[in-house]
Every structure is written in C-alpha cells, then in structure tokens.
Design a protein that fits this description.
- With 159 residues, this protein is mainly α.
- It has one domain.
- The chain has 4 helices and 2 strands.
- Strands 1-2 form a two-stranded antiparallel ribbon.
- Strand 1 and strand 2 form a beta hairpin.
- Helix 1 runs antiparallel to helix 2.
- The radius of gyration is 19 Å and the shape is elongated.
- The two termini are 25 Å apart.
- 21% of the residues are buried.
- InterPro entries: DUF1648.
- It holds the Pfam family DUF1648.
- Keywords: Membrane, Transmembrane, Transmembrane helix.
Length: 159
C-alpha cells in the first residue's frame, strides 16, 4: 500500500509541477510554439501554443491507466510464455506485484519525461534555448528501460 501511495503522490507532484509550468508560462508564449524536434534537438515544426497542453494531458492519461492496471493487473499484456492462469496462487500474486511495480515506476518516469519535455519546449518557445537537450531525453529513456528490463527478468525467473 505504501508503494502505491508513494508512486501516486510522485505522479501527482510531477503533474502539478507540469501544469503549473504551463499555466504560468502560457500567456507569455508566442502563438506558434515548437511541436516537433529533429535528431539534433532543433525545432522543425511549429503549431498553436495550445499544443503545450499535450504534456499534462498525457500525464493524466498515464495516471488513469496506471490506476486501472493497478486494480486489474490481469489486463496487462505480458509475454504469452508466462501463463498466469497456470501459476500457483503465491506465484500469481508475486507476478501481479511485479506488474504493479513496473506500471508505477514506468508511469512515474513517463511523467518525469513529460515534465522535462514541457520545460524544454517552453525554453525553446520563449527563445531561452535554441534546441532541447537530447541528452536529458536520452537519460530519461534509459531510466525508463532499466526497471522494465529488470522486472521482465524477475518475472521470467518466477516460473
């Protein structure tokens, strides 16, 4: 229960920071903001400043999905080689716990990514930076891959 509360609060705090960034900066944004960046991080597409709302909207979607999957871990699509229905009850419960942990960790890191992309997009849109920091995005994506791989290995070893 404590893990659930911690991850939920983490996602809520990240969402709150993201939405406060959007609210405090929205009025100062130009009508067109960068919405797509090339491999070097430079903007190559611009659209309405309303597009900045995509990031907090994605965070809300992640939060809702994580809560649904927490209550119903059997909805999660895991590899077919792990047949949950064939596992003994204690292993099935352990598997569900791993699924829940993976979902919350992944969702928290994705919320961090949305916050980071919001901040970087705002900097570029306001002329404070010429491009987004690709290394920051890469670091967050690596942080996303590590717990997913770790928990996938743990799930495989449970059988």
């Amino acid at each position: 229960m404590w893990k659930k509360f911690t991850f939920f609060m983490t996602m809520l705090i990240l969402f709150s920071v993201t939405i406060s960034l959007v609210i405090t900066n929205y009025g100062n944004l130009p009508n067109k903001i960068p919405t797509h960046f090339d491999a070097s991080g430079r903007p190559d597409s611009r659209r309405s400043k309303k597009m900045i709302l995509v990031f907090p909207s994605a965070q809300i979607l992640f939060l809702i999905l994580s809560l649904v999957f927490y209550r119903h871990p059997d909805f999660v699509n895991i590899p077919g080689t792990i047949a949950l229905k064939d596992l003994p009850t204690h292993l099935k419960e352990r598997m569900y716990e791993l699924i829940r942990n993976t979902i919350f960790i992944t969702t928290s890191i994705l919320s961090l990514l949305m916050l980071y992309l919001t901040e970087e997009t705002l900097k570029v849109a306001k002329g404070q930076a010429m491009s987004i920091n690709d290394w920051g995005v890469l670091a967050i994506l690596i942080c996303l891959a590590l717990p997913m791989a770790y928990n996938a290995i743990k799930m495989r070893r449970l059988r």
